[in-house]
Amino acid sequence: MAIHLPAGDATSLEANAFPVTRFYAWRVFALSVGLMLSDYISRQILNATFPALKAEWALSDTQLGALVSVVALGVGVLSFPASLLADRCGRVKSVSIMALLWSVATIACGMSGNYAGMFMARAAVGIGEAGYASAGGAILVSVFPRRLHGTIINSFLSAALFGSVSGLVLGGTLAQRHGWRTAFFIIGAGGLVLSLLYVAGVREPRAHAAQVKTHLPVKDVLKRLLTTKTALWTYLGSGLMMFIQGALLAWMPSLMNRYYGFDMTRAGATTGLLVIAGGVGMIAGGALVDYLSARRGVRRLRIMVGFALCYFALLLIAFQLQPGNPQLLAVAAAFLTGSGFVGASGVIVTAVSPPAIHASAFAMLTLANNILGYAPGPFIVGLLADASGLLTAMQILPLAGLGAAAAFLIADRYYDNDAQQTR
Asked: pTM value?
């Protein structure tokens, strides 16, 4: 993926060829993106309903943040074991079961009668979503040539942001018009339909079927994943970037509700527009990383340092501004220029990992993104908001971008050696 071979090398030709028919590869991509949309719609729909839940159940910001963080915590803790099972038992089968579980759990959220019931249902959503990004990413890597891996993975993962947008917009609109319970019912039902389409349209990759019979012992998988310095520092950098992104996704609708006077529909829709900028940035960022690394010889991790610094600088400026259009434009610019790290991080960790454990490598990255990022981000910002106000909490948030830039820079020091060992 990030290994550059001389022209004419047989492996170079293999890197440019589709391992399956183009039609099938793009069908798998379309279905995988559809499930990623469902995954994040189910995850983020809650954020748009914060005002309704706060009013109905008299919840604090800390309690609301915990409903977001428990999903990320479940994803983080279970992503590695779920993906390890997918590597060994079948990635397509595992993806289908995951999608079924998170869809049913989303419906259960709509049936919750109190905070405890909602908390348990949200935990089940996290359990269902635990291994999807890693297993789905490994399936996509198996059906596309290496020259497209950065673009494909970034495009696949960008569906997380577009799904977040859809969750915010649909959640706000449906909750405003039909009640927050109906919003959860409709989103959960859509996920069930997509899970059935995935079962019908995707088959287990042949190469993976062979690898299942010769899988590495768990201790060897863990040793490889946890002793590769490039991967470890990339996990840290990506997790810190996700800390920022998770907090923004959770609290921007509430920021607009409290400081701009927007209702749930308008706050969700406006936040959705901001996040669309992030989705565009992920796709464009993935293509930019592929182009600069392959054509210009720029090291991937150094490009990721640039993404982190953009996130830090633009958000720092944004939350020093008064609430209004200039602030929203600065946040949109931060999403646009800072989001390219997501797929690039996945490409880096798989480039320094054997193909047989690619799903596990993605899973370890997912664990870091959630344990370091999505889980603590909304909760910590909620704690800070209860103590000193939401706007003040958001002003502190961009500092995580500096830590991410430093982590990516350190990872770059070890990349050549770790990639050579993988070869």
From this structure: 0.69
